[in-house]
Amino acid sequence: MIVSLAIAGGGIVSAQVTPNPAPLNNITSLPLATPGDPTPANPPLLTAVAQPSNLADFVDDQTALLKLGKALFWDMQLGSDGVQSCASCHFHAGADNRSKNQINPGSGLLESLKDITFQVGGGANYQLTAADFPFHKLADPNDRTSTIISDTNDIASSQGVFNSVLKNTVPGQAVDSTTSEPDPDGFQVNGINVRRVAPRNSPTVINAIFNKLQFWDGRAKETFNGVNPKGATELSAKVYKATKPKELTAVSVSLNNSSIASLVTGPLLSEFETSADGRTLPQIGAKFLRKKGQKIKSLRPLAKQFVDPQDSVLGSDSRSRQPGLKIASYDQLIRKAFKKQWWKSKSIIQVDSKGTPTILAKNDDGNESEEGQTLPTNQFSLRDWNFSLFSGLAMQKYISTLVSDKTPFDQFQAGNTNALTAQEKSGLSVFVNNGVNGGGSCNVCHTIPEFTTASVRRTAGVASTDSTDPLISPTNGFFPNFGVTPASDDPGAGSTSRSLFKAPALRNVGLTAPYMHNGGMATLEQVVDFYNRGRGDDGGPGAPPLNLTDAKKADLVAFLRNGLTDQRVLLEKAPFDHPQLFIPNGHPGNQSSVTPSGNSNGTPTATDQLVEIPAVGRNGVTTPKPNFLGL
């Protein structure tokens, strides 16, 4: 067959391949056929997802859009603390391999379910060990009815910012003006705040472009409204458009195939991930884009980080031995990437104490836009206000290039029967076959080739703009009461009696531990044991055991660990290369004692322990970075 693949630059590549080899032609663990997948027994090769059909209404230059997206994703200046970037939780195979101060005690989801008692390690800033996993320990890992040795509602996730409240962002200043306040969710050691930890395990952003909906609970919708994750359900979401130089109009926008853009707007305001409490996206735009009386320079993209001259996207703009890009400001990238009506205006948007915007027309001073005007903290330029639109579409463009489609499995599926070892082929047979045929029925939920039923292709024609059941259901790749944790710990997209979580994709799963939405399993062996014993760690009825032999379990793990690992991801080769990054890795000390940083803005905070992730160019590294806990 002839397969055409759309590539990042917009061109089309055709490849001659042979029919899918066995055992793919004999799959017995089949999901229900859908309009997007009418013959699931004959899975296609991985193909690209379409861009928003109306992207040209907003974007002039996709190369500039890609540069803007990669720079913003990795830029430490994005966080309120001038440290935390999007990449801080997605730097290792698109996920997070840190293991110190990575426990959330059960806070941050529903207020009624909040738990601030650390069971794993006994406190915040704990250094996890392999012995802590799995969180649900059984006397016999193959028997879910055996004696429970230990259990917890704690979550292994990713550390973010300290608890603080925003005073204001300051134009040209990476660190927001904030007040440090006592952490209400338990992230303290002896009265000293430590960095907070998100309430769910961080999934990989690699291949996220194939998901119909984003986040574990699917709350980031496929239709981007330009403002927040809620898509078409948020009728009040408006951006501004310059219909004339002195006239702004509030408009609703709708971009399809854009769940990643919807996702981006969430973490930027999360008081667990990147933001002080109370920050808005226009305030982030003001910090990056505003020139206050021409006396304060705009923040240089990646000003705290080196960019490799061989970076596959940003290399030509690298300052080499100096941090940051040659591009002096994000303004320049936005002006080049986006059409003028979304950023060029002399009018100002003023926000009152209730958050209601009012348009203030400015006198004609000969300037192209509002630059040069000294603005109060409650007034914003058009560029500031539409930062949610710019950052969402730009980071989506970058993340859409992070496609891992060169695994040994892909080579095997394309006709190279030697691409998988004999053990990995046996593991693939376990993956694609049902129990009657000696398999694990993995393909039902983790459907080939995306390895998830929650993909755009699989869910073609399934509505996702309405958050009510059954639209968030197995039809969309979300499965109820799957046995990981009780619904009362975390309902996901469901209720306290019926949890619902998205089936994650599995490519590069050998690199992205810990696993599950609660991060409660550290190895693929633990994951396979969980399914083999019939799930049911939540105390529910579970499912019939798979009764796989030890040999078949080992084969399945070998396929998952090796057969689905793209060497470009492992070795950080393009498009998976990146700028330098400094990530918080807990604090000097432990769960019993930390050293205060000496901050003077309120509640004491702990001294940061930062780890460098060096800049990597398109050719990658020769030695892979260690996985979670070195496992």
UniProtKB/TrEMBL annotation:
Comp. bias (Polar residues): 588-607
Region (Disordered): 580-607
Localisation per UniProt entry: Cell envelope
Principal place of residence: other
Record-annotated membrane-spanning stretches: none
InterPro entries membership: Cyt_c-like_dom (IPR009056), Cyt_c-like_dom_sf (IPR036909), Cytochrome_c_Peroxidase/MauG (IPR051395), Di-haem_cyt_c_peroxidsae (IPR004852)
Keywords: Heme, Iron, Metal-binding, Oxidoreductase, Signal
Occurrences of domain Cytochrome c (ranges): 422-564
Name recorded for this polypeptide: Cytochrome c domain-containing protein
Native species: Nostoc cf. commune SO-36
Taxonomic lineage: Bacteria, Bacillati, Cyanobacteriota, Cyanophyceae, Nostocales
